[in-house]
Each structure stands twice: as C-alpha cells, then as structure tokens.
Amino acid sequence: MSKLLIILYYFIYMSDGNTKLKQEALCKFNEEFIETLNDLKLKKKKLMKKLNKDKKDLANVQNELDNHNKRKATLEASVTKKNKQLETIDTTIKNTQSAYEKIVETSQVLLTVIKKEKRNTKE
Question: What local confidence, expressed as pLDDT, does residue 92 receive?
Fold first, then answer.
C-alpha cells in the first residue's frame, strides 16, 4: 500500500510538465489499486465463507446441545421418579418384614401357650 502512496505522491507533485510520465504513474497506481482492492475482496469472500461455515457449525452444535439437555432433563426426571418408587418399595418391604416377624413371634408365643395348656389339661 505504501508503494501506491509513493506513486500517487509522485503523480500529484511532479514539478515538470511531462504528461506521459504522469499518465504512466497514474496507470500504474490504478493497476495496483485495483489489484489491492481485488485482493481485499477475495479475502473478504474467503472470510465470509469461513464465517458462514462456523455459524452453521455453531448452530449444529447448539442443536445437539439442546437435544442432549432435553435428554438429560428426561433422564433426571426418570431417575427421581424411580428413586421415589424404590424408597416406597423399601419402606413396604421393611414394614412387611417387621409385621411378619411380629406374626412369627406372636405365633411362637401362642404355640407356647397352647403347649402349656395341653400339658396342663393332661395332668
């Protein structure tokens, strides 16, 4: 870009009246200017392509993340529900075992009483 400025400076401030040199300098300036501008446009096009690809990739990743978050929420709800069911079953088992043990204990006491009564009736 500094070459362009030097050529432009030379073109504008040339003291002699040589029109041909001025035209050549202007032509060279125009060529370099157009080339530089075209290079910038090409860079812009490439960058826009990369940017659009990154935006598309980002949208895909966000979509996947949303799907994973929905699945995570569903699984968390399922785990919570199943833990509550498990607690209920554990409580039922504990209560049932306790009641069964009381029944067995009561049955043993009853059997002991019946045996005692049986002995007492034989005598």
Answer: 98
DSSP 3-60: HHHHHHHHHHH--S--HHHHHHHHHHHHHHHHHHHHHHHHHHHHHHHHHHHHHHHHHH
| Distance of alpha carbon 4 from alpha carbon 65, whole angstroms | 50
Cβ contacts of residue 25 below 8 Å, gap of 6+?
7, 10, 11, 14
What SS3 state is found at 71? helix
CA distances from 123 to 78, 109, 112, 119 (A): 67, 21, 17, 7
- One DSSP character per residue, 73-94 reads HHHHHHHHHHHHHHHHHHHHHH
Q: What amino acid is encoded at 67 in this protein? A: N
16 closest CA partner among 5, 25, 6: 25
Q: How much is the pTM?
A: 0.56
